[in-house]
Amino acid sequence: MLTWKDVIKFAVNGNPTPDNRVEKTENEWRKLLTPDQFRITRLKGTERPHSGDLCSTYDEGKYNCVCCDTPLFDSTIKFSSGTGWPSFTQPIAENAIKYEKDDSFGMVRVEVMCNTCDAHLGHVFPDGPEPSGLRYCINSESMILDKEALNDN
Ligand SMILES: [Zn+2]
Asked: How many A from CA of 103 to the centre of ligand 1?
């Protein structure tokens, strides 16, 4: 299980190697995504709280990257944080997510991205529920819920 110490280690010393890499130009992504998906995942935008479709969904399934379809989270690690964004306590696999220090807006935060295609997903904070203590705060627009996928684990 990942804890805040692991997150900091990845952000400072480098991230785990992903299973695959998907790389496209900005124009190629723009054609594949909706304007909101493009703004959030490729330009590091943030959706308004409580606006996302996946915020209050607790159906079983996997949450895949909207850009490259790699599984990032699943419904067993989703929890209600009350923040208005989908929240998770762990990634689906240690190497699914990439971490980078983000000091924009006068705050020091840890940005989380898809480790396969570098899509911006959101941020991770050390105030989540035990035992991991992590809260991955993720934009709905950066994921698609695959409800068929849980049984092949
Ligand atoms: Zn991706």
From this structure: 23
Written as tens digits, the pLDDT of the chain (153 aa) is: 999 999 999 999 999 999 999 999 999 999 999 999 999 999 999 999 999 989 888 889 999 999 999 999 999 999 999 999 999 999 999 999 999 999 988 888 999 999 999 999 999 999 999 999 999 999 999 999 999 876 554
pTM over 0.90: yes
Q: What spacing in Å lies between the alpha carbon of 93 and ligand 1's midpoint?
A: 14
Whole-number Å distance between alpha carbons of 7 and 11: 6
Strand intervals (E) in 3-132: 62-65, 71-74, 78-79, 87-88, 97-102, 109-114, 120-125
User: CB–CB of 21/15 below 8 Å?
Assistant: no
- Distance from Cα 3 to the centre of ligand 1, integer Å: 22
Cis peptide before 131 (omega within 30 of 0): yes
**Beta carbons within 8 Å of 18's beta carbon, 6+ residues apart:** 70, 95, 96, 98, 115, 116
Active site residues: 137
